[in-house]
């Protein structure tokens, strides 16, 4: 599988390394060259310096051959725009993006994009822990 990841922060760097370990062909785009330090020492994939909303940068990174597109920069707007470019301009079917804003996440999920919203995920996990500990406290009273 050919995967293009926009954003080489903690999540993007870890994901690129793991997918490469599985034998997938991975390309990573980031606007900050220092971000590529998060990749494994012998990362076999392609790294491209630039922004994920620039079609020429995406072409250089191999978007025209990609099966999966992932946008995990720290900026919701960049993730949204690059995901829309991947889907609308390049016809990538499998587009996954991270959006921190839960209201915006719902909108883009409704448009058929696979949206990961860490805000709602973490809030739900914490809520589960609070409710679990409160129900345990009630039982022990």
Quick overview:
With 141 residues, the chain is an alpha/beta fold.
Commentary on this structure:
With 141 residues, this protein is of the alpha/beta class. The protein has one domain: Rossmann fold (3-Layer(aba) Sandwich). It is built from five helices and six strands. It has helices at 10-21, 55-60, 76-88, 102-110, 118-140; strands at 2-6, 25-30, 46-49, 68-71, 94-98, 114-116. It has a six-stranded parallel beta sheet, sandwiched between helices. Strand 5, helix 4 and strand 6 (114-116) form a beta-alpha-beta unit. The longest helix has 23 residues, at 118-140. It is globular, with a radius of gyration of 18 Å. The model has no long low-confidence stretch (mean pLDDT 94).
Helical content stands at 40-55%
The helix count comes to 5
| Average of the residue pLDDT scores | 94
Q: Span between N and C termini?
A: 55 Å
What is the number of E strands? 6
Provide the structure class: alpha/beta
Unreliable spans = none
Output the CATH homologous superfamily. Answer: NAD(P)-binding Rossmann-like Domain
Order of helices and strands: EHEEHEHEHEH
Q: What value does the Rg take, in angstroms?
A: 18 Å
CATH architecture: 3-Layer(aba) Sandwich
- CATH fold node name: Rossmann fold
Strand content: 15-25%
Largest sheet: 6 strands, parallel
**Looking across the biggest beta sheet, what order are the strands in?**
3-2-1-4-5-6
CATH class: Alpha Beta
Shape: globular
Q: How many distinct folded domains?
A: 1
């Amino acid at each position: 599988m050919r995967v293009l990841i926009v954003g080489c922060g903690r999540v993007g760097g870890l994901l690129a390394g793991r997918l490469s370990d599985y034998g997938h062909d991975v390309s990573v785009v980031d606007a900050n060259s220092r971000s590529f330090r998060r990749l494994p020492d012998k990362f076999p994939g392609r790294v491209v310096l630039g922004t994920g909303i620039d079609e020429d940068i995406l072409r250089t990174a191999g978007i025209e051959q990609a099966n999966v597109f992932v946008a995990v920069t720290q900026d919701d707007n960049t993730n949204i725009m690059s995901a829309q470019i991947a889907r609308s301009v390049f016809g990538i079917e499998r587009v996954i993006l991270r959006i921190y804003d839960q209201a915006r996440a719902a909108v883009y999920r409704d448009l058929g994009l696979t949206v990961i919203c860490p805000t709602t995920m973490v809030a739900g996990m914490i809520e589960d822990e609070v409710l679990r500990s409160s129900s345990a406290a009630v039982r022990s009273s």
